[in-house]
Amino acid sequence: MIDIGLSKMALIGAVALIVIGPEKLPKVARTVGTLLGKAQRYVADVKAEVNRSMELDELKKMKDQVEGAARDVEQSIQTQASEFEKDWAQATGTASEASLSSTDFGAGVVPAYKHPGKNWRLKRGATPQWYKARAGVRTKALSGAARVARYRPQKFH
């Protein structure tokens, strides 16, 4: 970049001392140093922004490539699935199954989801509920805050 040796720095300092004067030289040097630091930070920020935009462009290209590959895989799977359905229909001899679309899944053959009705926090046993209620066995789980509120000692006023 700029080749400044010790002799050139001394010459610049001597000229600045004569032109500016010994009273104002430290303040001017401080101001020049501050401005040079700001300029370096600005250049570094611009470089970082350019690098980020280049990386963003590369990531967009990579995303487009991955999406294209995913579309190709999806299309190949769909064509293979349709070929499989045709072969299956020919092998089983039923043409009506081949006419069903792949999104129907047999028009309602898939059963609806049914919640198992379990509460994994509670212990299930063969003990009757009336006995548990009489013996004071806990049948419902408490949250931490509810447990603290229930078992906190009462203040007497």
From TrEMBL:
Subcellular location: Cell membrane; Membrane
Gene3D superfamilies: 1.20.5.3310
NCBIfam families with a match to the protein in the record: tatB
InterPro entries (UniProt xref): TatA/B/E, TatB
Task of the protein: Part of the twin-arginine translocation (Tat) system that transports large folded proteins containing a characteristic twin-arginine motif in their signal peptide across membranes. Together with TatC, TatB is part of a receptor directly interacting with Tat signal peptides. TatB may form an oligomeric binding site that transiently accommodates folded Tat precursor proteins before their translocation.
Alphabetic keyword roster: Cell inner membrane, Cell membrane, Membrane, Protein transport, Translocation, Transmembrane, Transmembrane helix, Transport
Keyword match Acyltransferase: no
GO molecular function, one term: protein transmembrane transporter activity
Main location per the UniProt record: membrane
Leader sequence residues: none
Protein name listed in UniProt: Sec-independent protein translocase protein TatB
HAMAP family for this protein: TatB
Example of a GO cellular component annotation carried by this entry: TAT protein transport complex
Biological classification of the source: Bacteria, Pseudomonadati, Pseudomonadota, Betaproteobacteria, Burkholderiales
Domain of life of the organism encoding this protein: Bacteria
Membrane topology value: Single-pass membrane protein
Subunit structure: The Tat system comprises two distinct complexes: a TatABC complex, containing multiple copies of TatA, TatB and TatC subunits, and a separate TatA complex, containing only TatA subunits. Substrates initially bind to the TatABC complex, which probably triggers association of the separate TatA complex to form the active translocon.
Family: Belongs to the TatB family.
One of the GO BP terms on file: protein transport by the Tat complex
